[in-house]
Specification:
This is LytTr family transcriptional regulator. It comes from Spirosoma radiotolerans. Pfam families: LytTR (PF04397). There is one protein chain. With 146 residues, the chain is α+β, with helices and mostly antiparallel strands. The protein contains three helices and eleven strands; from the N terminus they run βαβββββαβββββα. It has one domain: OB fold (Dihydrolipoamide Acetyltransferase, E2P). The strands form three sheets. It has a five-stranded antiparallel beta sheet. It has a four-stranded antiparallel beta sheet with strand order 1-9-10-11. Strands 2-3 form a two-stranded antiparallel sheet. The longest helix is centred in the C-terminal third of the chain and has 23 residues. The protein is globular, with a radius of gyration of 15 Å.
């Protein structure tokens, strides 16, 4: 199986700069009786585990919260986050490559995770990815105003 690189991995500084342009505010999460604000742009992927969601962050840390993946999906920026499977949502800013195959489409993230795309969501994911890449290329060509 041959990997097809779809984007150049972005630096942390570039991800943080793009976070503002994609309206990626902080996400308030319930955590042991209190609430914590987490920067949305540092989320690499979310993994559903029943009534819980496991967050994987760019620094390698993880956090589990007692909210379903469906509830979390409604709080995320729809331009940047893509649902690949009933158990996984990824941040497209951390996408490294797409691996097409006759049996199963999968993606690799820059943290080394490899996530399968469900057959039912594959065409929607490809459309979402193309739209995201178009918007990203438009943002990269526009010079910031000082």
């Amino acid at each position: 199986m041959r990997a097809t690189v779809v984007t150049h991995p972005l630096s942390k500084g570039h991800v943080e700069k793009l976070a503002g342009q994609f309206s990626m505010s902080d996400l308030t999460l319930p955590f042991w009786g209190c609430r914590k604000k987490m920067p949305m742009h540092r989320i690499v992927r979310l993994e559903g585990e029943g009534n819980y969601t496991l967050f994987h962050f760019s620094d390698g840390s993880q956090l589990i919260v007692s909210l379903t993946l469906k509830k979390m999906e409604s709080r995320l920026s729809p331009k940047v986050f893509a649902r690949l499977h009933k158990k996984n949502i990824i941040n497209l800013l951390y996408l490294d490559s797409v691996h097409p195959s006759q049996q199963q489409l999968s993606v690799s993230l820059i943290n080394g995770d490899r996530v399968e795309v469900s057959r039912r969501k594959a065409s929607r994911f490809i459309k979402h990815l193309k739209g995201f890449q178009q918007e990203l290329s438009m943002l990269n060509t526009v010079e910031p105003v000082s």
